[in-house]
Amino acid sequence: MEPVIVVGAGPVGLALALALTRHDVPCVVLDEGSWKDEARLARTAVLRADTASWLERLADVALSAPAGVPGTAPARAERRDPASAALTHAALPAASPVTQGDAPVAGLRWSGWRLMRRKQTVRHVTFGEDEDEATAGGTRSRTGEPFAAPLHVPQHGLAVALRRALVGSPLVTLVGSPLVTLVADSRVVALEQDAHGVTVRTRGAGGNWWRGSHVVGCDGPRSTVRKLIDVRFPGRSGLERHAVAALRAELPHPGEALLHRSPPWRGASPEIAARPLPDGAWRLDWLLPAEGDLVTPDALVTRVRETLAGWCGGETPPYELLDTGVYTVHHRLARSWRVDRAFLAGDAAHLVGAVGTQGLDEGLRDVRNLAWKLAAAARGEAGPALLDSYQAERLGAVAARLRAADQSLPILRGGGLLRELVPGTARGQESLLSDAHLGDGPLGAAPSYARSPLAPRVADSAVAVGTAPGAPVADVPATGEDGASAPLSARLGRGAFLVLLIAPGTGVWDARHWRTAGIMPRLAAAVNALPCRAELLVAEGYPGAAAHTVLLVRPDGHLVTALHGVQPAALYGAADAAYGGAGTPGDDARGPEGGADGRAAAEDDAYGDDPDGAYGVEPGGAYQDETEPGGGHRDGTEADGAYGDGGEETSYGRRGGDAPTRRLRSAPALGPAHDQPPAPRRGESSAREGAASGARGDTETRRLTTRPGNE
């Protein structure tokens, strides 16, 4: 089996490599860096609860501070995959640039989230509360589920944790192994595709020719892979500008994130966010005017002192300033995410970040969607539509997120006149911000792939349950044929579909009894006959499901269909369609908007409401000639950048054409004209703002030239 070549060793690239190892698929990870991540608390990411839990199971490591740390959410139930339990106690290698020692790497799960306007608390959500409190306090999402605590984690720590998971595995070594080879100081300069695989050429200390079955570009917003396959990257630049400070101080409501709109003190930013980190650290973000003055170190210290005083009764408490930066948010979307055997993921495919949306979270969702499909293709099991569905599903989902954010910006940043003319506008703004920050609604909810080309035809025996087809399933307790009981999420990620039978009362029986009782033998025979690998599970109940309902769940946790009773033909047809076989949607496909052409449907969904062609669909659209933002050779650590939210300092680069390429291409040589950024566009921050960029140039968060401490 030839390896999958992953270009870029940021969080998205490392997560993809780790996911492929869980499927026993070999891979080569190429990165032009040297594994040295600068520890910066101004570079953080917010991961939705489901993404964070999936990543912890994947890496088999806790990414949040231990239970008992002040302000943390209650400890979660253990959900590690028993099959990977041996990795838990595997000794980490000695300190090296890859693992950066054995110091703990931890983020923080917030205990709550608070939205304030002037001096009033508009909304307060407490995470981890019981069912009655959630109902009484109005802290449920639109689907009726209690909100789960997001994870706030430094991006350098996330990359180190994922590298440790790879290097600590007995299947992975630095010099190469049956499954993974990690190669630093390797800059991709050429890519060639043929009918049987891809060839990638690199230069640098790890320069070589690499042969693989597929290549995935996780190499940031200035992706070399994207340029070599001639995919354009249009979008909007300079949507928001923020100043950031990481500090240690005692603030009100420890462990709770805060979004403060229109603070009451003179000269305050229109919007300030405070996000807690472990050990009493906080990250503060100030929304800046699009065309404001440069942010000097003194001006930022003044903002820090005024903000802390405003929150602490008028007097600035003692604080320690740890890190600072300024960043600009861009929205961009690659025109294509697949060209033959080449794929794009993370910042190479999209930049997201305005109004609280999270780019790194979307990049990790790319990995969840793509890994099991690449594994099936590597084993020769996938149908022709399976790999195509990655673009149809993920491009459509991210485009919908971008469109929702773009439509929200005029409402949220339109100024006071709109609030005066439109009654209830302030409440609408608060609802939009709550959705984005809490992971709800179009701005934040987990994506649904109802219009996927993998959606099966509607069977006569199909029934409705609490989860719509294409949406993520509820994490109910389930028991396998071996008698082991665990949450449904613990069974995901192994490359197998899950067939879940709802059978109330089975919990009181030993597995050896119910395995041969009732409809179980017929269902087991139907599962064994499926065209894909599948695991049979039993659950006491599922939201909205009657007894003897059978649910078919994809390896990434999305519902394929729900059937009434044992229906072997319908179950086979649904599994075959979801595995890219002949059962792709037709005229009678699920949903009134579903089309026979899954890709066309996804593109229509992604761009149908984009009148000015901002993301490159309309020929001659307003933004097709925008240059690309600065990037680098990594994924989520770059343009999501310093902040996990699409932050960039500058917008320059080279744009490729539309035509796919199968020939050997060389990366464009950067001459002197490319060494310096051009003058900033109107509305964007200057490249000189604050101070010089970090070690990796325009992709790093700019530090301010001074770093004051306590005053």
Rounded to an integer, what's the Rg over CA atoms?
A: 25 Å
Distance between the termini: 61 Å
What share of the residues lie within helices? 25-40%
- Quaternary organization: single chain
Coarse morphology: globular
CATH class of the domain at 477-596: Alpha Beta
Biggest β-sheet strands, sense, barrel: 9 strands, mixed
CATH topology of the domain at 477-596: Glutaredoxin
Broad structural category: alpha+beta
- By CATH, the architecture of the domain at 477-596 is named 3-Layer(aba) Sandwich
Write down how many β-strands occur, each being a DSSP E stretch of 2 or more residues.
Answer: 29
Q: Estimate the mean pLDDT confidence.
A: 76
Residue windows where pLDDT falls under 50 for at least 5 positions: 67-97, 131-138, 170-177, 417-421, 582-613, 616-628, 630-711
Proportion of residues in β-strands: 15-25%
Q: Helical stretch count? A: 17
